[in-house]
Amino acid sequence: xxxxxxxxxxxxxxxxxxxxxxxxxxxxxxxxxxxxxxxxxxxxxxxxxxxxxxxxxxxxxxxxxxxxxxxxxxxxxxxxxxxxxxxxxxxxxxxxxxxxxxxxxxxxxxxxxxxxxxxxxxxxxxxxxxxxxxxxxxxxxxxxxxxxxxxxxxx
Length: 155
What we know:
It comes from Xylaria hypoxylon. Pathway: Protein modification; protein neddylation. Its EC number is 2.3.2.34. It catalyses: [E1 NEDD8-activating enzyme]-S-[NEDD8 protein]-yl-L-cysteine + [E2 NEDD8-conjugating enzyme]-L-cysteine = [E1 NEDD8-activating enzyme]-L-cysteine + [E2 NEDD8-conjugating enzyme]-S-[NEDD8-protein]-yl-L-cysteine. The protein has 155 residues and is an alpha+beta fold. It has a single domain, classed as Ubiquitin Conjugating Enzyme. It has 5 helices and 4 strands, in the order αββββαααα. A 4-stranded antiparallel sheet has the order 1-2-3-4, with no helix packed on it. Helix 4 crosses helix 5 (142-154). The termini are far apart.
């Protein structure tokens, strides 16, 4: 185990909208973060992210995947997350708290300028109200999200 992993985990400051789950209590390098946004267009949703840290952490960022299909400019339909500190801006001085705050911010302020889901980004840029409506449709279930993605690809 990377020595700073335990320190990072013990110093997490999770608000009431987040919690961590350790499927295997003996493996602190792999855990789940649950986020339930209480403001913004994703209010009322519940989103889980798997965190996987290798032995190279903190020299390499954690691998983070969203477990739900979500209509979001910065999260693709495979769950990959576009967050600069998980890629080119990662530095060993950053910690898990920085990643968690970044994820929480993506739900408050989706970023259309650096998208993984280009349709959602175009939608957000064109009309915040249409984007908000499409987010609500997608949160109603994955079949609704697939229909939304299909109609966007035809349109």
